[in-house]
Amino acid sequence: MVDTLPSLAFLGAGSMGGAILRGVIASGIPVDGGILATNRTAQKAAELASLAGVQSIALEDEPDGNARAAAEAQVVLVGVKPAMVPDLLREIAPHLREDAIVISLAAGVTLRTFTSILGTGVTVLRSMPNTPSLVGKGVTGLAAGEGASTAAIGIARRLFETVGTVIEVPEHRIDALSTISGSGPAYVYLLIEELTRAAVDRGFDEADARTMAEGTFIGATALLEATGEEPAELRRRVTSPKGTTERAIAVLERADLGGIFREATAAALARAKELAGESAPVTDAIPQSGE
């Protein structure tokens, strides 16, 4: 277990980067060298300026702020939009420290894109956190680039453990992971929306409908976590033979939820591959012989 973290730079400290930044602070883990964070506007930068130990940089006031932050920190987290990643990497490449660990937060951007710009001598990891990281309940997929040391992986893992659980995967699995844990919260919210609408259709007002739907999801997942039981077993306990729940489950099973989720995650995976192509430098986007 890493007891301290080295200096950190969050380049593009938006929703996800900001969540991880706040998770580090809330964890109480000492950060040796402090934390730097960049945002495009002074308004966004001001939201982080009051956090203890954070130097918040507005790029509209300091155009070379990304380069300065990258030069001062050992761990550099890249949190800009995927299409912006190559330009940012070119900007910071000459300024990175020799011991730099660069971690991607960008969906669909490959490790090869990073190394093609930064060079093979820079330690690079690719991460896929999800939005429950905002409340310390995230699931982060972590893929290490070739040559990443055990120590570097340990630092990255400890960083993301401040906002939830970490799953280490080879890079070829991280896009698939993103279709489950990365996009998954949206699937859950959609189910809650639809269950709320069903409650309204049964005659409940919006407030009570939301309480029932949201509270049921929160309670069910809390019970799942507390008992450690398989979801199928907990479902069986609720589903009495010839009862109302059994009748409802039969309707959901006829709708082929499994097939729908397989189709949905396949669509998300296809888009992740498109993003990889869109964010790759021209030379990187051309497959090499044997791939």
Automatic annotation (TrEMBL):
Pathway, according to UniProt? Amino-acid biosynthesis; L-proline biosynthesis; L-proline from L-glutamate 5-semialdehyde: step 1/1
The positions annotated for binding NADPH are N66
Keyword Oxidoreductase belongs to the record: yes
Q: Where in the cell is the protein located?
A: Cytoplasm
Any single GO BP term: L-proline biosynthetic process
| Keywords on record | Amino-acid biosynthesis, Cytoplasm, NADP, Oxidoreductase, Proline biosynthesis
Enzyme Commission number: 1.5.1.2
Q: Which GO terms describe its molecular function?
A: pyrroline-5-carboxylate reductase activity
Gene3D superfamilies per UniProt: NAD(P)-binding Rossmann-like Domain, ProC C-terminal domain-like
Q: Which GO terms describe its cellular component?
A: cytoplasm
Q: Which residues form the Pyrroline-5-carboxylate reductase catalytic N-terminal domain?
A: 8-108
- Catalyzed reaction equations: L-proline + NADP(+) = (S)-1-pyrroline-5-carboxylate + NADPH + 2 H(+); L-proline + NAD(+) = (S)-1-pyrroline-5-carboxylate + NADH + 2 H(+)
InterPro entries hit by this protein:
6-PGluconate_DH-like_C_sf, NAD(P)-bd_dom_sf, P5C_Rdtase_cat_N, P5CR-like_CS, P5CR_dimer, Pyrroline-COOH_reductase
Broad class of the protein's primary localization? cytoplasm
The segment(s) forming the Pyrroline-5-carboxylate reductase dimerisation domain are: 171-275
Would the keyword NADP be found if you checked this record's keyword annotation?
yes
> What PANTHER family would the database entry show?
PYRROLINE-5-CARBOXYLATE REDUCTASE, PYRROLINE-5-CARBOXYLATE REDUCTASE 3
What is the protein name for this chain? Pyrroline-5-carboxylate reductase
- Species this protein is from: Microbacterium paludicola
Species lineage: Bacteria, Bacillati, Actinomycetota, Actinomycetes, Micrococcales
